[in-house]
């Protein structure tokens, strides 16, 4: 039976705050093979019974089931719409109607008409404050919404109840350019007569300490809250209520709150029913209004930060030095919620940290200046439950520095915070170490995808480094639906670009880009436009387009993409360009003693990424129909590639730069002429052998090492590299008990000592980019850039590594693509599922003989046999050639 499922609006489920013409996606489900959508019908209405229809596409002959636009539909602001879809397939079967809903945003083109109100005094303190205001409802209410935002971070309340379950709102954006607001349905919270709206505010990124330069007040000196409440009455009328100068404010019990240092809460300062009973205003003062400095206020319709998981404490133990330590068994990002009972003024204090030292004691040196401390003062002797309001820590452990009574395991729960992204990918195999590696990759993504893609969640940094973000993006798009997350961040990347197109090292950018001296040895060398980092402007949008098939991200980011390529061009002489600080193959192990800069010359890495980004820009122009740009950047790329070969290869075809990374990125990015390829591959193998089969690569070379091997006929060596478990290797961390990815290969050295505490995060996702290889090569699930979003998938598993099975899948825009293979001797059984309305090529590498083709016609020689299929389940059994123990 043909069914529809996973109805989405703008790639989100039931979004609230849609600020553009919505795009609809649905998944076809059928037990038949070769199912293709023949037509669809999309209907929009103002009611769930679809009696008040506002749009009807009628029957549309099309196989389009993703990003379907209702042409001619003009949504009203702050309105809940219901939609329903049905489709007919190529078997003339019609699905039942399936429905969903969404709510539109304010629709005021980025303008904001409410006051920002505050009682925050100045930029020196780090306390929390309350603001509140009253409003009256005199008519029968149909529905009500609040659009809320803040300078700082906020939680919104209405009539005593917290609204929504978001944290760290309104998130971190390029505050001078754009500020996000969140939209909530408050219909059920309101009643006739007097109502109270309010918020609790904290410093957050806006005025708190941000960055390792310890700067405060980067965007402003006073926190402030603003909201618009939209009341829609049964008689058809509307009423807008906004925060204004009539509101009141007071100090909150949050007496200290800083992202790096933690939070202090004094329950003795609580104001009972502060957002319900406003008759006693003795501790309240009139608010001030402050100006909005952002150019635009935009809706954030989804992907807000939430408590996505809760993990109870696993053990309480005494460290050798006598400290009482909590262990949650997993390095994570979030906060600790705890129960506490004590006399008035009794204190509970927890110090969060990631790892134990060589002796088994608390290790906090790698936090640098971050205190990561939670402090609570009891109001009375009643049992209380406390959870922080405006902070997050990166931790597995916490020292119970002070606590009234005896702490019990059930008193402590770790609340895991990350942006609300649907889990899409899965990978499990016969090797438990690889399964733990997959686990670690996923948890490092969770730990660092908290509103922006941060480099680490624990120390006094937690910045959106662009290099980390682009390196990991393809892996992220396997693990979770990261579309909305990255798209939000890309808007800030574009906003923070310099006038000539330079891209900051971190986004949102907190460093000056005008060359002013900075009191930091690294950033003083340059704060923007580093190769492989700034290329996020091009690589991330292209990666999102491939994964989610949405041209809109390319349209939105096109000027930014072009701006970055032109920046490189303006600073180049032929293929060589340079600009101030270049991190290049950052923290590679082939660096000179005491240096963070790998041995691969920056000019070489710059040239490689200049060519690659230019190539992607030309492809983007082709997708968008920008013919002149396509031709221009295609010519530029060909010219640059010709110069690259002339400069970096000698006449005999030898690459002049003899590092693992140089060989890797030359091969992976397709810069090696065919006549030189075999020699370059051999040199890479020699460079690997020279290190006894270990990598010595950094941020640039590592993500592509296994790809460079497997793409060039050396899958055996790629598996061998992946499966190394001594230092340095991915599995070395696993063997050391890691539950997330480390920043350094030897964050903990073999002798148990630590890498320099200056930069030693144990939750740093960049090297987790190996996850893409697990999905695309070990499992064999590959995109087709000519039919993106898995409209056409290439299934090409590479059998090896001593693995007896791999089971993997990804929930795509069209449905789930699954691959399972099992090996017994030289016989392989491959099972795959291809979603309806898509096609696939099944490629059998090293197939000597097919025993069962399940109706698939395969063609090719013994080295590679290919069959083309439509949707459905397939089970193929074949014999592979003897792989010499691989």
How would you describe this protein?
The chain has 886 residues and is an alpha+beta fold. 20% of the residues lie in helices and 32% in strands. It has 14 helices and 49 strands. Strands 14, 20, 21, 25, 26, 27, 28, 31, 32, 33 and 34 form an 11-stranded mixed β-sheet that branches. Strand 26 and strand 27 (324-340) form a beta hairpin. Helix 3 (466-479) packs across helix 14 (771-778) and helix 6 (551-570) packs antiparallel against helix 7. It is globular and about 85 Å long. The two termini are 43 Å apart. The model has no long low-confidence stretch (mean pLDDT 97).
Count all strands and give the number: 49
Question: How many H/I helical runs?
Answer: 14
Main β sheet profile: 11 strands, mixed
User: Roughly what percent helix?
Assistant: 10-25%
The computed structural class is alpha+beta
Rg, Cα atoms, Å = 28 Å
Name the beta content range.
Answer: 25-35%
Mean pLDDT figure: 97
Low-confidence stretches: none
